[in-house]
Specification:
Helices cover 15% and strands 26% of the residues. It has 421 residues and is of the alpha+beta class. The strands form seven sheets. Strands 6, 7, 8, 13, 14, 16, 17 and 22 form an eight-stranded mixed beta sheet that branches. A hairpin with an 8-residue loop joins strand 10 and strand 11. The protein is globular, with a radius of gyration of 22 Å.
Amino acid sequence: MNEALIIDATRKSWVAYTADNEFPIQNLPLGIFCYKDHTARVCSRIGDQVIDLYGLSSGEILQVEGFKPNCFLSKYLNPLLEKGKDSLRNLRSTLAQLLDEASHPDLKKKISEHFIPADQVQMLLPVKAGNYTDFYSSREHAYNVGVMFRDPANALLPNWLHMPIGYHGRASSIVVSGTDIKRPNGQMVLKDGEAPVFGASRQLDFELEMGFVVGKGNALGHPIPIQQAEEHIQGLVIFNDWSARDIQKWEYVPLGPFLGKNFASSMSPWLVDLDVLQPFKTDGPRPEKPLLEYLQTPGPHNYDVQLEVWLITADGGENLISTSNMKYLYWSMAQQLAHHTVNGCNMEVGDVCASGTISGPTPDSYGSMLELAWKGTKPLIMKDGSERTFVSNGDTIVMKAFAQNQNYRIGFGEVRGVVVS
């Protein structure tokens, strides 16, 4: 990986925001928004302000080689991603210079004319994923599920500790945060040994995941070496891979997830650049089995990103039901991408890969209702006194993610979805 552009940790902006704001000058994520005229545009964010990059560019305030104003009139970030990491580094670096506290007072006034309060805009899906792959990279999650449906001695299948397990999901049903989630219908078996019935899923679940967006593809037949994997990853989003456990249980043998997964996956609207997460790089779990050479990663290869899941009941009661961390992933993003392409599979710009459910070592860090309520045997008690074993109609699931150090916090915003009948 080339040396990443890291914005000075002590850098300050003339834009006012609190010390715990998730969008300091060190972040500057990219997204797509629309405002009064309903035109989709590329934006960034600092503090509580969305930055209209088309406005800055057309006003000749933001001038970056290779980026004409029309570049920022787009429904998705894909055309910008096609320009490559170095170009996007130049874009974010130039934007940071404009927002730096040393900017000229006259320039500050011109820039602020292209700010819009974040609560006044509609954020759209940031990328158009041509392909979507969901991995199964948390050992704790895989073990917990194996214990529930097999036994502790055989919780992990023989291949799990040797390679990242994944499946190809449905890209067309990825939706942006805030989109209602309709409870899916399908076949399910209500009691072992009985004939299947058709109806609405009774075991709707969330999965706490992080997703990465491919910013550089590879040619068919040419694997991505693990040493170069992160140069192909542009940034990260929060990802909720909604799951209908009862539909999934009946259908997944022999070919794996299908209707229990493909009805919806929710994505947060801000693409946080991988460069800004480099200060939060950390060691992952120690491999329990010798790894084949193409999966071996010298040095730290995980990221210390804190995760939260909130369940908001229909009366507005907010319940923090899970706190986890991306560092718990047994298989890192680099390993996932190297394995995905080792057979010559070609990735394309805008492709999305999700981590799979991120569960930690303690019950309060599990990343799904299946685990939190332990297959329905340990219901969660909400503030209003109601119980949950799975997600009910009217419930809103909110996931948050942030990385924190002594100087600033890098946030991803949130991914939110309310379940409707």
